[in-house]
Amino acid sequence: MQDNSGNVIRLVIGDVEISGWDSVTADSQIDTPADNWSLSLFREDGQPLPESVHGAAKIQLFYNNEVILTSIADNIEEAVSRQGYGLEISGRDLAGQLIDCSVPIFNGRQITLEELLQRYVLAGDLASVIRDVHIQDNSWLKNKVSVEPSESLWDAIAKAAQVTGQHVWLEPDGSLSIGDPFANPYQVQEALRLIKPLDNSNNVLDLSYSNDVSGVFSQIKVLSQDGEAQSILSEAMAQTQYSFNRLKIVTLGDVETKAEADAALNKIIKDNNLAAFGLTATVDDWIIDGRLWRAGFYVNVETNALSRATGKWAVLGRTFSLSREKGKTTKLNLKRQGDWAQPLIYKDPESKTKKKTKKAKKTKGDQQQ
């Protein structure tokens, strides 16, 4: 199926290129691994698929010459009747393979993010599938995590990235990115508008605003379990929509300093706000400012139809859709700019234990002298 500009949506699978799709869905969410995709078509004179088109075949979905996603076909369904031939191909992005497959270890061990990626991804069973990894910040790559037998590759990678203060996501070309998805956001030049009465300046089909404050607190205290008694290391008051105080006390055993407590507190507040405020917008087409919509964009919204939707938003996710009834549309999952928080950098407790043990021995020796 081509749009009015002659743009073609084509799927390359095996050694075959298929276009003329009747329906397409391609999801991409920063906070959700293994995003789903699906394509289907119906032809009165359809032909059987060649042998190279099968489940587990590698695929790439293109919009003209730009890659939308790289993946593996999880499922292929064919149907035939007197009226014609139907085909549906679906799957998940390459994070699905990392979720399905286990880390090839048989005893629990401590491992760094760098070793995990080099040994078990780039040089492991999935080396032909995930061929590249991009790490934004390598300052904390020596931090280790515990990996247990049967643990999935994705869980191990996500956990190992978290202790370096970084997030993990998949790029359209199938490479693995580790860092901050909003480190260098593209600011969309064209504002999203839904102004009443409707006129030609509007480019939004629908808007939906969500304000779930069940996880929002006006007073938060972070406590440490170090020492004989608990002590408050950090606390903050926040402006909320509640008319009364809501206190939340969080105990974090691995927090030792005021700076660490402040960082933990800041992340708690941001995570709560990320969940509390959201906007969903549906727009025509898959293109904005001459490029495909992508998670990680920044966009401004202008509307007089919803009281709290106007503002600066971040694209946490987008879903491309194609149908014969509605054509191409993009559904945007928007969060307030600044509410995204990176994982907290983790200090290896094993190193702390070694330091304390060494100090204890020295003290004992001093006493004997």
Give a brief description:
18% of the residues lie in helices and 38% in strands. With 369 residues, it is of the alpha+beta class.
Describe the structure.
Residues 9-93 form the Baseplate hub protein gp44-like N-terminal domain. Pfam families: Gp44-like_2nd, GpP-like_1st, NMB1110-like_C. Residues 271-337 form the Tail protein NMB1110-like C-terminal domain. The protein is of the alpha+beta class and 369 residues long. The protein folds into three domains: 9-92, Roll (Phage tail proteins - horseshoe like beta roll fold), CATH 2.30.300.10; 97-179, Baseplate protein-like domains (Phage tail protein beta-alpha-beta fold, 3-Layer(bab) Sandwich); 192-336, no CATH class. The protein is 18% helix and 38% strand. The protein is built from five helices and 23 strands. It has helices spanning 95-100, 113-122, 153-162, 258-276, 349-368, and strands at 9-13, 16-18, 23-29, 36-43, 58-63, 66-80, 85-93, 109-112, 133-135, 144-147, 167-170, 176-179, 192-194, 204-211, 219-224, 231-237, 247-251, 277-284, 287-288, 291-292, 298-303, 311-323, 327-336. The strands form five sheets. Strands 1, 2, 3, 4, 5, 6, 7, 13, 14, 18, 21, 22 and 23 form a 13-stranded mixed beta sheet that branches. A three-stranded mixed beta sheet has the order 9-12-11. The N and C termini lie far apart (87 Å).
